[in-house]
Amino acid sequence: MIALARTLLRTFALVTLALLFLGSANAQPPGPIGEKLRAAPYDGKWTGVVNCLYDPGLWPADECEVRFTLDIRGPLVLVEQIIRSKKGEEIKSNINPGRFTFVRVSTNAIAMSINAGKDEDGLWVETWAFAMTLTDPDHMLVHWTRVVNNTDMPREQKGSKFSSTGMGEFARMRPGI
Question: Which domains does the chain have, with CATH numbers?
């Protein structure tokens, strides 16, 4: 379990370093549109719906249309999700409070969290990642991935190991909204 967490952490670290080097190596000559986009802040609240590109089918089909709010505060990100059940009830939850980190290079950014815990199924390890790119100062494209390993469950048991991934467009929320 610790080895898996270390491997995942190293992978994210390598991706982050690669983005840092690629960002400076592929810099374009400044232009009015590019300058404005590169200078746009990520700080603030963003909201949007992620539609699944892949879902292992462990939950109701409508769960893979998830509304997220990302509250970006420098290197920290607070993540809230709202899932609508088949009965139409909205279930709101905060995801890994205080555990997300944020890295930005030019117009792109990554918010990621790796967490572990114990529940009725035993020990689990979970990774969340949001890869983002600004499309204009108030909109961004977001690619979301969640990977879970319930380490104490037999591999062949449904829900033992799974991943979901999705994509959506988020908009900046204005103060007072």
Answer: 2-172 (2.40.128)
